Amino acid sequence: MSYKNFPMVPRVIFGRGSFNQLNDILAPKRLSIHAPFIYLIDDVFKNKSWLTSRIKLSYDDKIIYISSKEEPKTSQVDALVEDIILETKERPSGIIGIGGGTLLDLAKAVAIMLTNKGESKDYQGWDLVKNKAIYHVGIPTISGTGSEVSRTTVLTGPEKKLGINSDFTPFDQVILDSELTKDVPKQQWFYTGMDCYIHCIESLNGTYLNTFSETYGNMALQLCKEIFLEDKLSKTEAQEKLMMASWHGGMSIVYSQVGVAHAMSYGLSYLLGTKHGIGNCIVFNHLEAYYPEGVSLFKKMMHKHDIELPKGLCANLNDEQFDTMINIALSLEPLWENALGTHWQDIMTPEKLKALYRKM
Length: 360
Ligand code: NAD
Ligand code: ZN
Known about the structure:
Bound molecules: nicotinamide-adenine-dinucleotide, zinc ion
Strand content: 5-15%
Oligomer: single chain
Number of domains: 2
Shape: globular
C-alpha cells in the first residue's frame, strides 16, 4: 500500500485584524516593479472601503472585482489569465483571492494557469498540472468550503464540473481574519456553514476514513454543533469558530473524500447552476438513508435558524436532463467509493439516483 503524500498550506495567519498584515506579507514577495500583485476580490466589497482601503497598491498592482453570482468556469479562468498576460509587462508576483469559495477557487486556478500551457479544462482531474503555480494567497470572507486549505479548485467546464486537484493548487499563504466575515447574510452563512458540516459527516462516515481525517473531522463537527445548535457563543466567537471549523473540515477531506451529497450536488450545479452551499443542503436534506444521524441533526439546525429550502427544483425536468445530472453525479467515482465502498455501483444505480433527484 502506498500512502498519499500531500501538501499543506505552508503559512497561515489567524486573528481578528490580521488582514492589516497583508501588505507586509506581500512586500518581500514582489519580484520586480513590473511584476504586479493582482487582487481578485468579490464584487460585494466594491464600495466597502473598510476593507479595500487597507490594500496598498504599488507600481502596476491591480484589483479585479469579480461577481460570485455564478460558480467559477474554465472559460472565465482562461479569460482572466489572458487579460492578465496582456496587461502586465512581466509575469505577476502573486495572485491574491479575497472572498468565498468562488473567489478562492478562481485565484488558485488563475495562479496555476499563468504557468501552465493550454486551457484550464485540460487540467480538470487529478494531478495533471505540470508546473508550479505562481505565488498565491487566499483570504476567506465567508467560512465553510475549506477551499482555503484544499488541494483542489472546483471549475465548471464544457464537459464536466471537476476540480483541478494537484500539489500546486494549495495556497502559499492564507490569512484567517474572522472580522472579514462580519457582514455575511444569514442564509448564506447557513448554506456555506453547512458545506463544512456536510464535509465532516461525509468524511467521518466514509470508507476512506483514517485517524488523520477523523481527528480533524471530529474537531470540525464539534465546532459546528456549538455554532449551529447551541446559544452560548458571542458573535465574534461564533465567527472565529466557524472559520476554524471550515479549516479543519477541509483538512479532514484532504486525506479522505466527500460523499453522496457532494456527488449529487455537483449534478444539480452542472445542470441548473445551483450553487454549492445551497445545493448541498437541498440534497443532504433527503439523504437520511445514507447519513441518518447527520441528516437528523441537519434538520434540527435548519429549524433552529428558520431556514426554508427551495422545493421542486427537479419538478419539470425531462429525461435527458435527468440523465445529464445522473451522469455528472456518477462520474465522481472516488466520492461514491468513499461513501458506499468498492461495490458502490451495486448500491447506487441510475434509477435510485433519479428517484432521489425527483424529491428535490
Ligand atoms: P461564494 O464565494 O459563492 O459566496 C457566496 C455569497 O456570499 C456571494 O453572494 C458573496 O458575494 C457573498 N459573500 C462572501 N463574503 C461575504 C461577506 N464577507 N459579506 C457579505 N457577503 C459575502 O460562496 P462559498 O459558499 O464560500 O463558495 C462556493 C464555491 O466554493 C463553489 O464554487 C464551490 O464549488 C467552491 N468550493 C470549493 C472547494 C474547494 O476545496 N476548492 C470546496 C467546497 C466548495
Ligand atoms: Zn463542499
